[in-house]
Queue: 2 jobs
Job 1
Amino acid sequence: MKLALAVALLLAAPVHAAPGDAAQAKEMLKRGIAFDTVKGRGKVPAYADYLKTALVAGGFAASDVAIDRHGETATLHLVWRGSGKKRPFAITGHMDVVEANPKDWVRDPFTPIEEDGFVFGRGSHDNKFDVTMAINALIALKSSGFKPNRDIHLFLSGDEETDWKTTEIQARAAKAAGVEFMLNTDNGGGTLDENLKPVAYNISAAEKTYADFKAVVTNPGGHSSLPTWPNAIAQLAAAAVKIDAYRFAPQINEITRASLTAEGRKRGGRTGAAMLAFVANPADPAAIATLRADPWLIGQISTTCIPTMVSAGHAENALPQRATMNINCRIFPGVPVDAVRAELEKVVADPAVKIGTDTVWLSSPASPLRADVMAAVAKALAATRPGLTAVPAMDAGASDSVWYRALGIPSFGTGGLFVRENEVFIHGLNERVRVASIAPAVDHWRVLISELAR
Ligand SMILES: [Zn+2]
């Protein structure tokens, strides 16, 4: 049923639209949603083929677009050769989407539906929206005869939401191609107020590192009627209390200095004042206390580590032989993962509690703000949302950018979508985007790309 519908959509009559204009972009977004690109469904290659067909119809040579299979998923790589006056840059995005259970949705998540001024569907926002808009901007530029002065690479990954295997492969390819910096379609973007007026734009230039550590206490155990001490559960519990009470030292970087300054001025009040005081003096105890008390801000000024799961004991009447706890950390960019592990051990200060991890967590530095990228974003905003200034931001989550930054490629989330704060449904139910947001987003990418490649 779903497959038949997707095929019917693909065969639908072509829309009469200029190459890369908003009507064509909307059609491409809707058709893209019909590809159920959740991990394990094997639909990413078909979506990649569809995008390649669109790029070729938009004027690119078939030989400029490579699609590589990686198990059930795929990558797409377009190279638009330029004059070579400058080093190449890359645009990235992902073709896969997070699972969506049709039973929980008001409308089928993989049937694109336009209603009440919105396009509904899984991926309508994350990340098919900005992938589609960037592709339409490339098509519009190509058909207008634009000649880039540097190679432009488009890397679309196929497992960003799950395994990141294809991201790693593409980041290495970008490095090998001499890519100087990367623009990620998957983060950054704007905010609309209640009256749909654009009020803010963030360019994502850094991400916290995600890491899980396991704290483990082992004990010979025995019968609970013959107690011995120490008790593994009590030792682990004491460690949990210490980690819970611990606060990592405050830190600041170029990105958070800019974002806290902009947000502090806008917000005002006690929190706004604390943001500005922290920027002026990152050791200001009153400012630190205020920012630490806000769950949205504590992560902006430091590493955070939280006990999130515990498991202990093997029988109701036995001394516990093993007690384990998961500690989830969001690490400030530039801090080595092992330094955080060592700090946790120091905090716990009990040699019986072993803290480790069997995973290699990817960490990446903050990207130094580039004058050319900031100027191009400013131009794109002036063209589409006059009066707005781009503010750098540090994201809590991890995107494809982590892999590029880890290889020394500065990466910037420069998405073109503007949303109301209460209308962000990525990874959630009834994901949607405003139809009115399509035209300015295509323009956003068109100006951004042409500014950086002229
Ligand atoms: Zn995404």
Job 2
Amino acid sequence: MAALYGLPGDMHHTYIDLHQAYGDTVRIGPNCVSLAGLSARAAIYGISRPIFPKSDFYLPSQASIAGKTYTNLFNTTGEDFHTAIKRPVSRAYAMTTLLEYESFVDAVTKTLLRQLVIRYTNTRSYESKCHLDRWLKYYAYDVVGQITFGQSLGFLELGPDAEPVISQLRPPRLGIAVSQMPNLYQMVLKPLRKWTRQTPPTSPVVEFTVARMKDRAATGTKDSHDQRDMLSRFLKAQKDQPDLIDDVRVTSYATSNVNASADTTAITLCAAFYYLLKNPATMKELEEEIIGAAEAGKISSPCVSWTEAQKLPYLDAVIKEALRMHPAVGMMLERVTPPEGVTIYGRFYPGGTLLGISPWVIARDRVIYGDDADQWRPERWLTGDADRQSKMAGASLTFGGGTRTCIGKNISLLELYKVIPAIIQMFDVSLVKPKDEWRTVNEFLVSQEGLEVDIKRRS
Ligand code: HEM
């Protein structure tokens, strides 16, 4: 049933509705239970042993490299294997390392600003209405390309002409429904592939990555580590541990970056602008903070540094609230109970039961976020004592939890904290048609209309 709900793209609302109707524990499949609340979160995604491994839900997301199906950091269900392949690259994702990439992010940010100026704010501009959601998506793809390969994917330069390429990069909606029925995948699709000797299709991202690796090999930079992008770090890890990290593994590190990062970061950026535009008082507050800081010489222009952005408390509150209001992942993060089973909320689940929580369910939990948990209110992150603040932050599943927490969280934070003030410093953005009837940001994200805005250059 959950799979059928998944097809229209509104599964996150279905989970919330089910938990509102039936409480903390909702059985959604023969062996599958959706849970809510902090105790369940601690039991399933806590970092102490036993770790609940990922379920077969993740198998259909496997791709093919050089004709071989492979598992990556995101979709492997083996915890030991996960630890082994994560260890050699985890430092590449630490914030201290990422700050070396600030100039990469700034370069892409400047391209975004330039495109917006040329296309929408000049007297000779050739496009009237700006679909901000699309530009934020091109931006997120180009940043991850720049950080991973030292080369942007060129989507900002292409503008709307990038759409056909991007549509090939996204997982098909049917694939999402299949992830809810892994037995179908195991029983039908996998044997069928074996029988027809087919592997999952190679994606354009894999092809792009393989081409970049060939460039590196040809130009001799494979071993020298002189280009400090992520690919060079992955190649360095390969040099240190050739038995563990072959060329396919290097490709998988790089492709996971692109596949897992662009849509998620773009959705979060889009949600932030959507809620700010729908709630002008919060936009005004943020504008005053950013423009005031610029006038006082406290932040750089047009690109704000990460360190400067950390001193903008309202920006911080807006980003936390956007991540809470619209987690990019709406499906339940499915895990398998360990062999000895587990008891949660007085109910025993034997080993092999599928349990999980949707990041949306925890984000709307009134016990954690208060009675106005359904509402956009960045101020919730500026009031209350430190304990409450850390309880709210620690409850979030927007970036997942436990050993499988998003490895790219810092990359997306770097983008969010830098590009929002850059856009607001330069432009006055307003919604073309305020649509009060939109229930959530999701409804315009899936609509053809998109986040249509007017942008004017600030004087
Ligand atoms: C706002 C942006 C992002 C959000 C909301 C997000 C969300 C998530 C979530 C919820 C998970 C856990 C999935 C699960 O338990 O099933 C995850 C894992 C992962 N994410 Fe992200 N992500 C974001 C950005 C990124 C970026 C920028 C990258 C890489 C450049 C990335 C790479 C990954 C990888 C490789 C994993 C698997 C980690 C592991 O299991 O060790 N993500 N992400």
